[in-house]
Amino acid sequence: MTTTLLELDGVGAHYGRIQALDGISLTVNEGEVVTLIGANGAGKTTTMRAISGVRPISSGSITFDGTDISTLRADLRVVRGISQAPEGRGIFPGMTVLENLDMGAYSRKDRKELPAEMDRIFELFPRLAERRSQVGGTLSGGEQQMLAIGRALMSKPRLLLLDEPSMGLAPQFIAQIFRIITEINKTQGVTVLLVEQNAQQALSRADRAYVIETGRITRSGTGKELLADPSIKEAYLGVA
Ligand code: ATP
Known about the structure:
Blueprint: E1 4-15, E2 18-29, E3 33-37, H1 44-52, E4 59-64, E5 67-68, H2 74-80, E6 82-85, H3 97-104, H4 114-124, H5 126-130, H6 141-153, E7 159-163, H7 171-188, E8 191-196, H8 199-205, E9 208-213, E10 216-222, H9 223-228, H10 230-236
Parallel strand pairs: 3-8, 3-9, 6-7, 7-8
Antiparallel strand pairs: 1-2, 1-4, 4-5, 9-10
Helix pairs in contact: 3-6
The structure holds adenosine-5'-triphosphate (ATP).
Adenosine-5'-triphosphate is lined by residues 15, 18, 20, 38, 40-46.
Protein name: Amino acid/amide ABC transporter ATP-binding protein 2 (HAAT family)
Domain ABC transporter: 6-239
GO biological process, one term: L-amino acid transport
């Protein structure tokens, strides 16, 4: 049976007079990996911020697990199970890997479970385990990205929001990050909404996908369908 975990219905968002989102409607079902692809400035990051609650919406509604969370504070959305690894990583550069991970667990009451959670994250990212005492700001770009994802996982989310996890990474790191996203989804049962410029990788990993253009959803389908679509190929996959 399909259970809808997240639903956006006609969501609008503005920055002053600039309309960044113009009626976004999409759903993410429990257990899925869904990707949002689109050109620069299309509204991908704003959509993620609207879902995590750091950007207020000006119209429409956001429902999570059957509850309208449109006006719920961002920190209370984390408590409900929504966690975001933001674009540009956003780790705490002066804190160690361990301290950064600990910050990700601020919303959890079951503190006794945290060491086991950290062990799971270190299994996913052995590189972070080796560098647990190193300060975040001295990690490589790829390692910082892993830390941002690890920190987001520390809140034990039901829905993980990943904004451009492959941005600025070397090819071997890109492949590794996508493998890990699949693993988080399959073995830990975390539902994933993924924003990506790297449409090829994102579509091949995603169950379903949405295309966003100037603040509106213009296409949707399975990852495979969109990968095979000539107009998508031309616009987003660099193939004429
Ligand atoms: P990119 O792939 O380049 O990160 P995006 O699809 O994530 O782009 P958004 O960052 O959501 O796009 O931006 C959507 C629109 O909102 C753009 O026109 C952008 O210029 C505008 N915008 C985003 N952030 C702000 C801001 N802080 N102030 C004003 N306008 C903004």
